[in-house]
Specification:
Blueprint (H helix, E strand, L loop, with lengths): L1 E5 L8 H14 L4 E5 L5 H9 L9 E4 L5 H10 L4 E5 L6 H9 L2 E6 L3 H16 L3 E6 L8 H13 L13 H7 L4 H4 L4 H17 L13
Parallel strand pairs: 1-4, 1-5, 2-3, 2-4, 5-6
Helix pairs in contact: 1-9
């Protein structure tokens, strides 16, 4: 089972949206995906509850857990046949975020083009480095048709010494509208620009983690 921590010590940069969309993409690729929510705000957990109201509630499963219970939940998921687990972390410097990064195979650090965000990237990248974890920055909320934010972000992350994911996510209202229904953007409008970005991001993550996506979805994970 691959484990991906979505973490930065700053709120409002798209951690939960990243977890939801990537986990949904993993399911669509034929994998059994899980989101473990260790943020006390429980935004991912609430999305999971809305998701269960769909006529045919789709995976991924979403569970709230604590820092103390995280290792046991990951072990339980792996034994049940889970292929990939995404850990959604709280904002701010916290022991929960440290536990998630320590448990992960890969750390994704969502951020946007803002100085406070870059400060958060630097701190989270430093944490990942200390724990010996591979990490990538993920630029979120880019204004469509704007290249300047992306160019700035790449220069800043180069100075930090953190690689940036080759796919950037733009600011599309579809993410918010889909979340209201307990869906991911690509499920609500599969041919949308937002969906195409998520597909490209998933392809990159799958290749980075060396994940096979030919497996059938296991229904037994609980």
């Amino acid at each position: 089972m691959r484990k991906v921590a979505i973490s930065i010590n700053k709120g409002g940069v798209g951690k939960t949206t990243t977890a939801k969309t990537l986990a949904s993409a993993a399911v669509a690729a034929g994998l059994n995906a899980l989101i473990l929510d260790i943020d006390t705000q429980q935004n991912a957990t609430t999305w999971g509850r809305r998701r269960k109201k769909q006529e045919r509630p789709p995976l991924p499963l979403v569970y709230f857990t604590t820092e103390q219970d995280l290792p046991d939940e990951l072990d339980r998921a792996e034994k049940a046949g889970c292929d990939i687990a995404f850990i959604d972390t709280p904002p701010g410097r916290s022991s929960e975020a440290m536990a998630a990064v320590e448990a992960a195979d890969l750390v994704i650090i969502p951020f946007w083009n803002d100085q406070d965000s870059y400060d958060g990237v630097k701190k989270t990248a430093s944490l990942a480095s200390r724990l010996g974890k591979d990490a990538f920055g993920l630029l979120n909320f880019v204004t469509p048709n704007s290249k300047s934010h992306e160019e700035t972000a790449r220069e800043v992350l180069k100075g930090i010494g953190l690689p940036m994911a080759p796919v950037v996510l733009h600011r599309y209202d579809l993410h918010r509208l889909a979340s209201i229904k307990g869906l991911a953007a690509q499920e609500m409008e599969p041919e949308s620009s937002a969906a195409l970005e998520i597909a490209a991001l998933w392809d990159w993550l799958r290749a980075t983690l060396k994940l096979r996506t030919s497996a059938s979805v296991h229904k037994g994970v609980a």
